[in-house]
Amino acid sequence: MSGWSVAASESTIDLFGTGFVLLAAEKGDAWISAATGLASDGAELVAHMVGGRGDLADPEGTWRSVYGLEPDGAVLVRPDGYVGWRSRGAEADANRVVKDALDRILDRKSPYPRERFVQSGARMR
Question: Total structural domains in the chain?
């Protein structure tokens, strides 16, 4: 299995287990900004950009295709390592969308329909 790494000795699997992790594709600046804002408001959330100028390398260039993302898409991984939410591409209001995704995952009120969220829970590897 190919991996996406912070350094040669680390894998993205090492990122999971203590809080939520948002992984954005190489043009996902809005997702990174939204997650950073929520984290500064107290959410247990960290954000990483994969590929391009991001802090996580994608040497084989497969990360986006594995998760079905456009260059400006993102996934939100739960602390247990399962994908809780995904956006294939950009959204008009990334701040609201990420907050609503967290609210839905944590069973708080959200205006989005349930089908926007991963039902079966694809596990990150």
Answer: 1
